[in-house]
Fold D-aminoacyl-tRNA deacylase.
Amino acid sequence: MKALIQRVSEASVTIAGKRVGEIQQGLLVLLGIERDDGLDDVTKLAKKVASYRVFADADDKMNLSVHDIAGGVLVVSQFTLAADTNSGRRPSFSSAAPPDQAEPLYRAFVNALQQQGITTATGEFGADMAVALVNDGPVTFMLHSTNKG
């Protein structure tokens, strides 16, 4: 399981002209779910996202988490993060989890963040979404549920 996290001052998701999710200061999480992912990956990655220190403290050092600043998290499913781009000029999605496996894990990830007290907004799984954000920094990191790349 992969999470591309971006520190944002605001972010939103719009579907067919209707805003369905938005946050102010916090993290935009683009979540990629792979075939071999399970609930253990959900738990590990949700804890990592909630506690990852990417916000500045009083000394302007990245020492605070989204939980520490009482920020929000906007979670957007993005199967393209599971793409294999190692050969050719077209990505392969053979390692991406199929929708019937990925959607329950996506929902479990959102729930795991909420259970940690994180204000969480979402897009809509599988929808064609327009994501808008103001990247603060810019600060962007790729997190994994395992020790992969």
About this structure: Strands lie at 2-15, 18-23, 26-32, 55-56, 62-64, 72-77, 119-122, 130-144.
